[in-house]
Amino acid sequence: MYQEIIKKIVELGDSLPAIAGHTLDVGKSKQWLTQKDIEIETELANLINTFPGAHSVYAEEMHNIFIEDENVWIIDPISNTINFIQGMPHYSVVLSHLYKGETQFAVVYDPSNKELFTAEKGKGTFLNNKRVYVSKRNQDMIFMIGPYAVPPHREKFLKTISILSQNSSVMRNLGSLGVHYAYVACGRADFAISFNYDTFPEFAGKLLVEEAGGKFTDFNGEALTSTTEGIIASNAMIYDQIKKLINFELRNSF
């Protein structure tokens, strides 16, 4: 089942780079939507519907109501569609599988770099089939932050950037939250912060980071849910420090 999903995601993802930068935004009720978003979500949902048992799909474009089921598949067909529309790299196809409420499997595929990040519960995190782990850095840290928050979170976002920048060395925003979390999982970044407005890439990010030895919670240290806002993905060494910095800044700035 998972190998079928991986094969389909790679196939669909590999169709994107050739047309990146030459694709229209067709969104009407929302901005940043392409026919490829719809196609990828539809093809993955159709494949999932061939699997035995009870399944539901929770996805960004056409299945955006979370329905409790024994098997829930969460899909972000193109994580950071704006990068794809503009012809910039670091968009990704993201999928996770929940069984009885627990995330069992995750994929983040960055077709621009042909990098496939996968994780299965209890079996570790892999980049192109090679086991990877979170970093062990606790100083001179590299962190990912995004997306650029819209009101009412913009001021919180900017304040958080300020306090984290004073305590870390390098900040990056590649656009795709799927890629951000994957980079924490493989040790390229030490932590990632998001003022997220949905959770489509977060369930995959959670399993990738945790199976690589890291921690993934909301800003208060609580477990991820479909309505969580505010994410910390971090190596285990600095998690408490990052959570303390964020909560001190948010409590004392507003």
Automatic annotation (TrEMBL):
Domain of life of the native organism: Bacteria
* Stored InterPro entries: Inositol_monophosphatase-like (IPR000760)
UniProt keyword list: Magnesium, Metal-binding
- Cross-referenced Pfam families, in alphabetical order? Inositol_P
| Record's keyword annotation contains Magnesium | yes
Q: GO:BP terms for this protein? A: inositol metabolic process; signal transduction
Gene3D superfamilies tied to this protein = 3.40.190.80, Fructose-1,6-Bisphosphatase, subunit A, domain 1 (3.30.540.10)
So which cofactors does this thing need? Answer: Mg(2+)
**A molecular function GO annotation:** metal ion binding
Give binding positions for Mg(2+): 60, 76, 78
Specify the protein name. Answer: Inositol-1-monophosphatase
Q: Which organism is it from?
A: Candidatus Nomurabacteria bacterium RIFCSPLOWO2_01_FULL_36_16
